[in-house]
Design a protein that fits this description.
By secondary structure, the chain is of the alpha/beta class. Helix content is about 30%, strand content about 20%. An eight-stranded parallel beta barrel has the order 1-4-5-6-7-8-9-10, surrounded by six helices. One of its GO terms (cellular component) is cytoplasm.
Length: about 475
């Protein structure tokens, strides 16, 4: 099933999010907090308009986009200040999944072709600022734009008729019958597959959003929400879902009736951090709490002491945003992976499990843990350069040197400053994400491996640091020596 997307949008200027209130007055907000909120609360993607009016402001926005891309889990669509192909590249390197170009500037038509050839059509969108441009949608698609962003502020009957004609032509191409979607105002048209995807900019009002998303050509609604309007995209999705519009929400693959409950009618829930797998806490759910969790995307439990529902974080602000829910083999315990805000424990501890009971010393050889530790050291080297660091040497030399290293241009062996001896610690290259500016753009993105000069990322990983693997035992090595 193709889900219809909800994509909140806002501007970025001087390092702040720029929105309008219901009276159309400009309002600025913390852009990182706003982006994280949307990511946590059901947004499928986020669109950011670069409103900078100088080169310095543009570079500041690029830096902000890098930070947002590293923090949030949803894709970014970015555009607004594209004057040359280099600007498209900068947005993509900063972490944008796609860049939109305004078709009212005829120079951008050549750039759509050039950018789609270089970076891939899936990364290039066309922004149509007026209804008159809809007649050229097929031209923009042939140039390489994969998605059309339609501004609906000047909607006319002619615009709607053109949109319907495109949908009908598309349905004919796909052998589908679009007779149920002959006007945009139909409430239950056939959701037919289309080679042309359009996102429509709208106010976010439920009736208007639903009307647009019912159209077979519209794959998503870009929500130009007033700053003083409700922002919870998950709640908006539930309202759309009730209208039979396919949106991406949490749905249980196994019915509650199949769960094995304890004598109180509850099921225990183990909660883990979705990135580190750290066990955070344990609580209980009844059926109402389970359904509330699925509906809101925020962990909700049943408090045995208060005998009532308990939305985690409702008073403290330490919400737990659902990433996945799994049931164990006996159907009697749920494992929840979440993004934890702040501390999970009422004591202020990140995890409720912090009191040692018994322990035997052992070497943590979990490769994912080593991977994570090395990555954080690399991040630290970038933010706090260290004299003599080989990682800093590579950062200073730039992407070409890093890519040369990734292709095997010489490997250095370290073990506390010594060459490895027979049967001792061996140095091996490990391909891992590295915090640098590259074609997928995220700091900490998967980059390059075999990065061709066309700009197409192929292997999308870089070898930048050597990890010590032990031939015969699990000796610990100071990772800081390696970097």
């Amino acid at each position: 099933m193709q889900y219809k997307k909800l994509i909140p949008c806002f501007g970025c200027k001087d390092g702040m999010a720029v929105m309008s209130d219901s009276s159309r007055n400009a309002v600025t907000e913390d852009i990182l907090a706003l982006s994280q909120y949307y990511s946590d609360n059901g947004a499928d993607e986020i669109l950011i308009r670069d409103l900078s009016d100088s080169d310095d402001g543009h570079e500041q926005t690029i830096g902000i986009i890098k930070t947002i891309a590293r923090k949030v889990d949803v894709p970014l669509i970015v555009g607004g200040r594209v004057k040359r192909l280099e600007d498209v590249k900068k947005y993509l390197y900063a972490g944008a999944r796609a860049v939109f170009l305004n078709v009212s500037d005829e120079d951008n038509l050549d750039m759509i072709k050039e950018a789609s050839d270089r970076f891939g059509s899936e990364k290039i969108y066309a922004y149509l600022p007026e209804a008159g441009y809809i007649s050229r949608i097929e031209e923009y698609a042939q140039l390489g734009a994969s998605v059309m962003i339609l501004d609906t502020s000047d909607i006319t009957r002619e615009f709607l008729m053109q949109l319907d004609e495109l949908a009908a032509e598309s349905a004919n191409v796909n052998g589908a019958d679009a007779s149920g979607a002959d006007t945009v105002s139909d409430t239950h048209p056939e959701h037919t597959a289309s080679p042309i995807t359009c996102f429509v900019i709208c106010s976010g009002e439920e009736e208007e959003t639903a009307r647009w998303l019912c159209h077979p050509l519209i794959g998503g609604a870009i929500l130009n929400l007033p700053s003083d309007s409700p922002r919870d995209c998950m709640a908006r999705k539930q309202a759309l879902k009730a209208r039979q519009i396919p949106v991406d929400t949490f749905e249980s693959a196994i019915p509650w009736s199949s769960f094995k409950l304890n004598s109180d009618g509850l099921i225990p829930v183990i909660v883990q951090d979705y990135k580190t797998d750290q066990v955070l806490m344990m609580a209980y759910m009844n059926e109402e709490a389970y359904e509330a969790t699925l509906h809101s995307g925020r962990m909700t439990y049943f408090s045995r002491s208060r005998q009532s529902l308990w939305l985690k974080g409702e008073t403290s602000g330490h919400f737990q945003y659902v990433k996945s829910l799994s049931l164990d083999c006996d159907n009697d315990t749920i494992l929840a992976k979440v993004r934890q805000v702040g501390a999970a424990c009422h004591t202020g501890s990140r995890s409720c499990f912090f009191q040692p009971l018994a322990r035997k010393e052992y070497a943590d050889t979990n490769p994912l843990k080593v991977f994570e530790d090395v990555f954080h050291v690399i991040l630290d080297r970038k933010e706090n350069p260290k004299e003599g660091s080989y990682t800093n040497y590579l950062f200073d030399k730039g992407i070409d040197k890093i890519l040369e290293k990734s292709r095997g241009g010489g490997h250095r062996d370290y073990h506390r400053g010594q060459e490895p001896g027979p049967g001792g610690n061996q140095i091996r290259n490990l391909r891992l994400p590295v915090p640098c500016d590259g074609p997928d753009g995220r700091e900490g993105c998967d980059l390059g491996g075999d990065y061709r000069r066309t700009g197409q990322p192929v292997a999308k990983q870089i070898q930048i640091v050597q990890i010590v693997q032990t031939a015969a035992s699990s000796q610990q090595v100071d990772i800081n020596i390696l970097c």
